[in-house]
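User: Good morning. I'm curious how zinc ion would be positioned relative to this chain. Could you predict the structure with it bound?
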Amino acid sequence: MGMRVYNTLTRQMETLEPLEPGHVRLYTCGPTVYDYAHIGNFRAYVFEDLLRRTIRLAGYRVTQVMNFTDVDDKTLRGAQAQGVSLDEYTRPFKQAFFEDCEALTIERAEHYPAATDHIPEMIALIERLLERGVAYRSDDGSVYFNIARFPSYGRLQRLNAAEMRAGARVAQDEYEKESAADFALWKAWDAADGAVAWESPWGRGRPGWHIECSAMSMKYLGESFDVHTGGVDNIFPHHENEIAQSEAATGKPFARYWLHCAHLGVEGRKMSKSLGNFHTLRDLLERGYSGREVRYVLSSAHYRQALNFTFAALDAARAALARLDTFVARLRERAGGAAAAPQSDWAAALRERMRAALFEDLGVADALAALFDLVHEGNRRMDRDELAPPAAAGVLALLDEADSVFGFLHGDSERPDERTLALIAERQAARAARQWADADRLRDEIAARGWRVKDTPNGPQAERLAQRADQP
Ligand code: AMP
Ligand code: ZN
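Assistant: Good morning! Here's the predicted structure, ligand included:
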């Protein structure tokens, strides 16, 4: 089945047609590992995960590359401030990124190249640009891309002539479109870089941020590939510059479809450290929410719509997931060991609605509406004893298919966070010591984190509470 996506490059809905039949090559700009990724970043990664999973549901094989930006202005500043090497500084954030992805059931990409492992590829690309006369060396030993030599510069962002400052230069990795100018491909070493430098034909220095993604995407996906994504803040200058560097070097079209997700705000405001509403996934887990609940919130709004993250939405996610879990448990009991029957008309129609919604630019709102109609209708039929075991097994199979995209349907394997597990162990110890008051206090603390402990012959078992005992 075909799928359509909204292409930022053409500002149109287009049918996704991979260059190689049956195989979609996808590049997703990854984390700059100068800090823990925040939930705004994870909105982008969850969107990319939904995209990857939907492309697969549509019948394609996917090769996804997600890079680590582990050398740029921000990582260097961080390492300098802490007086540690770049590698020592970035390594824990890479590790944390994988842990967070796991908590959010984000599937692993096929490749995770790190910029610092691809400096020779970047140097080779810059050499090609110099040979073609679209780049030039500056007096200090840096190399700049000459935007005046690339006629379609500004096409992605739709810059107008007045916004192109011909002849001007910008050395920073990040800048506004008002400063569109020749940008750095290679930055000559300066004192702020500390011990970080690589040898190049132009002297010691380090790559600019944009050339990193051009070099790594083309290495793993070829000079022309299918889909390139990121958040809207990546459109300019990052993706604009990637297109310019890649196409100027190869003379071929770079990525064909550009998809960008809108930003995540928090409680109606921009997420920022100074407002105190800057959340990492870790912060939310620490408050007793689960990765599954966070994933639900991040994936339940359309990716091109601004998403307002609230604690009320997390609580609503908990209730919605509890409803799904109850439905699954009920279906399982009804199905027993029966083999799945072909979908009855009502279930087949809902399945089609769900698939059609996803294949139209990831219409998650419609797809979720169909999913909850399935819950409603399935419950209604079970209430009236109108769902035979094979039909119940069929609905379970349909839920598996839905989960192959949503990734939050199966809560069985859900484990409490480490802090909650520690509290459960403490409560066990208190009970064993007959310290009932302590045991009760711990039970309440556990409940406040969203869990109930059931004492079974096999020891304590944690169960998700449908409602949090406290409200933040
Ligand atoms: P960075 O680590 O800053 O390079 O960002 C990693 C990814 O997160 C990029 O795709 C950004 O566009 C995206 N991103 C950053 N902030 C937000 C936000 N508040 N909402 C959604 N996506 C974001
Ligand atoms: Zn990138």
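Confidence is low (pLDDT under 50) at residues 467-472. Residues 311-335 form the longest helix (25 residues).
Let me know if you'd like a different ligand tried.
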